Amino acid sequence: MFWRSVVGKLAITILLLVSFVLFILSILLLEFFENFHVQEAEKVMLQTASKVTLLVEEHDEKSLIMEMVDRVKNPTSRVMIYFDEEDKWVSDTNNPLLQDMNDLDPDNNEALQTVLTGEESYNDVLTLDDKDKTEIMVIGEPLPTQDGAIFVYESLDVINQTKAETTKIIFVAAAIAILLTTIFAFFLSTRISAPLIQMRKASMGLARGEFDTKLPVLTNDEIGDLAIAFNHMGEELHFHINALRQEKEQLSSIVNSMADGVITVTRSGEIIVSNPPAEEFIQSILFENNQDQVNHLEQLPEALEEVLQKVIAEDKDVLQELDIQGRNWVMIMTPLYDQAYIRGAVAVIRDMTEERQLDKLRKDFISNVSHELRTPISLLQGYSEAIVDDVAESAAEKNELAQIIYDESLRMNRLVNELLDISRMEAGHLQLNLEELEAKPFVSKILKKFQKLADEEHIYLKLTCEIEQELICVDGDRMEQVFTNLIDNAISHTREHGTVHVVVRSTHNQFSAEIEDSGSGIPEEDLSFIFERFYKADKSRKRDSKKKGTGLGLSIVKNIVEAHDGTVSVKSKEGLGTTFIFKIPQ
């Protein structure tokens, strides 16, 4: 509103100040002029009384005195001369009020009687008509040489008229002064407030992020200096905001690119900053506790509140390990300070699941290799001792023992070769010799190798080919190794009169194969580990205990397929069979 603006406040202040000054000045002027007119009238009347007194004392002829008095006095006043108590004279006047007024009778006024007796002079204002408030000023001077007195009186209406005219002039002048002051106040306040209004608009622009806003410098006074300072402030603010934005973006990029989770929380547990790994960690906690994963991402979960309170209470770093949804997390929470006050904490969270699994695999690898080598070495040692000690007497018995030693050495050689293959593959040293092969003849040749084994085990081995593109680009030896491992596993885990079905598909952009068996299947808990080294599912899946594997075949299959930029997967249900599927892009 107007009176809330700077223009209104400044204008009203100036107007009230000037009005107050003019009001006091008008009162003082009116008082001054009123007293001035009364004093001047009194002074003139005293002079007239003095002159008439001299005339009366110096002249004895009354006619001359009356004539001289009419010339000396003011035409609006009236003079009364008491030569003695019986002889008096009253002059004429052109004031109608004094003409109609009866002569003052000293006998009825004690103050006037004192003048006639020569005791003292008289000076006062009398009200003759209470109804009309008619006032006259009376001056009385006693005659020094005889019993008489001179009275000069004049109506105050003339003085009141003069005072009214003076008051009118003062009020008109005050009104003109207030009008001019109002115009000046609005002009001045507008001149002062216009730059302030521009600064307000510019400030609102800065608040909206419009840092290029500039104020024109129109004057060299304090307002001009303020505009210069404002422009400089805008430049500095723009610079610092850009610097802060760059720092924030850089920090955000660093935090978001971190593999570890980072969470910054306030003292009350409100999450300020978090990156995707940290949000995944929080969602895992919320999912485990059956909480809303959307509405609780802004507040630290209850499982971490205790850690935060411990950090605040003990004022030190806290290390915590958490097992959530089958994954192992390690979190270190560090206090954040505002000088000596702990205002919150920052938590760094690392998913240690893979590291723990790798550590477990390393330990299992040593254990499995030791286990796999111990059996054949024990057999080699035992049977070789039997030959050396001539336990086997006949040549047939010695040949049987030698055959067992030979088979176990082949088994050890196969285990070592497979370990070397996996090591080269995982180290990235696997070299593929890509060549174009005809899909159907290539797969048919591999199945012929297993046909005799399938017939011996009374298993039906079937091949189905869906060929759109006959030529495929693969490493023939490695791909034969993939088919060999998968088909051998399928036959080994299929009961008599079961079926092993190989389906091969070749299109213009993909070569794929499915090896399906009707065996015992793989337990669900083993599916996620089936491609790991030395991992073996339940022994009950093996149809013949004499057929022992190393547990490296499927791991080799996975590495070969992935070296061809392909994928391998497995579908199985215990008691219904297993299907291995691999796809290689062309």
Characterise the protein shown here.
Helices cover 52% and strands 21% of the residues. About 2% of the residues have low confidence. The protein has a 5-stranded antiparallel beta sheet with strand order 2-1-5-4-3, with helices on both faces. The chain has 586 residues and is of the alpha+beta class. It has 13 helices and 17 strands. It folds into 5 domains: 159 residues, Beta-Lactamase (2-Layer Sandwich), CATH 3.30.450; 45 residues; 94 residues, 2-Layer Sandwich (Beta-Lactamase); 70 residues, Helix Hairpins, CATH 1.10.287; 154 residues, Heat Shock Protein 90 (2-Layer Sandwich). Strand 1 and strand 2 form a beta hairpin.
Assembly status: single chain
Q: What amount of the residues lies in strands?
A: 15-25%
Helix content: 40-55%
Number of strands: 17
Short description:
The protein has 586 residues and is α+β, with helices and mostly antiparallel strands. Helix content is 52%, strand content 21%.
Question: Topology, pairings included?
Answer:
Elements: H1 6-58, H2 62-72, E1 78-82, E2 88-90, H3 96-100, H4 110-116, E3 122-129, E4 134-142, E5 149-155, H5 157-207, H6 222-257, E6 261-266, E7 271-274, H7 276-288, H8 302-314, E8 318-324, E9 327-338, E10 341-351, H9 353-388, H10 395-426, E11 434-438, H11 439-456, E12 460-467, E13 471-475, H12 476-492, E14 499-506, E15 510-517, H13 553-563, E16 567-573, E17 577-585
Parallel strand pairs: 12-14
Antiparallel strand pairs: 1-2, 1-5, 3-4, 4-5, 6-7, 6-10, 8-9, 9-10, 11-13, 14-15, 15-17, 16-17
Helix pairs in contact: 1-2, 1-5, 5-6, 9-10, 10-13, 11-12, 12-13
